[in-house]
Amino acid sequence: MSIELRVPQLPESVADATILSWHKHPGDAVKQDENLVDLETDKVVLEVPAPTDGVIKEVRFKSGETVQASDILAILEASDGASAPAPQAQSAPPAAEPEASEDDPALSPSVRRLVKESGIDPASIQGSGKNGRIVKADVEAAITARDSQPQASRPAAAPAASADAGAPEVSNRRVEERVPMTRLRKRVAERLVQAQQTAAILTTFNEVNLAAVNRLRSEYRDLFEKRHDVRLGFMSFFVKAAVEALKQYPIINATVDGDDILYHGYFDIGIAVSSPRGLVVPILRDADQMSFAAIEQRIKAYGEKAQQGSLSYDDLTGGTFSITNGGVFGSMLSTPILNPPQSAILGMHSIQQRPVAENGEIVIRPMMYLALSYDHRIIDGRDAVQFLVTIKQQLEDPSRLLLEI
To answer: Going by C-beta distance under 8 Å and a sequence separation of 6 or more, which residues neighbour residue 237?
Structure first.
């Protein structure tokens, strides 16, 4: 029986998707729930699983093509077992192999990039992941195995190889490569330009002494991790401090809606997370109701999902305020850009031991520069400065976070 595999219902406000990579090709046998193809939208990568066991009979769209909801992606010939279609699956790869090496480079964006950089043919790699999927370790093992071969026995994989076998390798070539933007990168670019063109963005700065937070983390780190199975990081302190400051200055948590100001009576905090596909901002919903442990656990889960490319559209939708931590990359000071339609974003930076004056004496303390970018259309400088001062006070005296003062 033939089954039509269609594009799943796309999230609201998403009109279409792009075929990122096919994991199966005509003639291949598939198992129920095995991922057949990855669809890239503006924010997330959607997987399309097989509804039943069978054999791929026909593929309607190639990698890189755009599809819309309910478009027929492929035709699956259902079967009661995988043994019957085996002869077809064996005879199909030779014809499809050249296209597969280009159109199906990997099972995830990070693996795809590693395969492209190394020149490894993914068809030659035996996947060790779920359902035989290729994971990063598989590619790294294949690279090690290839590099350990004698030079003469290695396959010719470099396009830059000279046609003259006796010519020395040229190392000073001026090489250029044109690579299309991913949908995520294009969407990020659009939103950043939108923020610059529609908002009156200003940034105010301050610095915070994190000695008290460090003492708390040092004293309770092991007990916290043993109790909650997650490390006690800095981000939970900053989320808690931001929520308390937002309660005192609700205009920072508001958005512009036409000629109106929309005040939000809830606190959905976006946390900027780096992923192989670019920067994403998953949301901590109702952060004011979350404990330190719940915040750390959710952020850890989001980080893992971002690396796996499995963040859902709901994970990334909404948000009333954002926090970004350039310090993890070594940034000392920066001006973060708004995440529309939000009106403000807090930037964290590197912690540095610096001399500061305390009670008339110069002492060394762990200091961090803070930056608050805000939309001056609705947020006055006074509110922005006092908001940032409130965050500073909360972090320099963490007992305020417990007392909510």
So the answer is: 213, 292, 395, 398, 401
Which bin fits 247, alpha (ψ -120 to 50), beta or left (φ > 0)?
A: alpha
Give the C-alpha separation, 167 to 63, whole Å. 37
Please answer whether residues 391 and 397 qualify as being in contact, where contact means their C-beta atoms are separated by less than 8 angstroms: no
What residue spans of 256-346 are helical by DSSP H? 292-308, 313-316
**Burial of residue 45 (number of CB atoms within 10 Å: 0-12, 13-18, 19+):** buried
Distance of CA 401 to CAs 27, 245, 293, Å? 60, 10, 14
Measured from the Cβ of residue 145, the count of other Cβ atoms closer than 10 Å reads 12
81, 82, 85, 91: CA torsion to nearest 10? 180
The predicted-structure confidence for 187-226, as pLDDT tens digits, reads as follows 778 888 988 889 999 999 999 999 999 999 999 999 999 9
- Whether 286 sits among the annotated catalytic residues: the reply is no
For residue 357, count other CB atoms closer than 10 A to its CB. 8
Q: Which of 71, 264, 376, 383 is catalytic?
A: 376
> Which of 33, 286, 380, 397 is an active site residue?
380
Q: What is the pTM of this model?
A: 0.67
Cα 180 from chain centroid?
19
Pairwise CA distance, residues 60 & 73, whole Å: 5
Long-range CB pairs of 146-153 (<8 Å, 24+ gap) are: 146/120
Which residues does residue 301 pair with via DSSP β-bridges, in sequence order? none
For the cut 90, the answer to whether the pLDDT of residue 8 exceeds it is no
Gap between the Cα atoms of 386 and 393, Å rounded: 10
pLDDT in tens, 124-146: 787 766 566 786 667 777 776 77
Closest C-alpha among 59, 17, 77 to residue 42: 17
Q: What is the pLDDT of residue 64?
A: 82
Active site residue 349: no
For 15-169, strand residue ranges (E) read 16-22, 29-30, 35-40, 45-49, 54-59, 66-68, 72-78
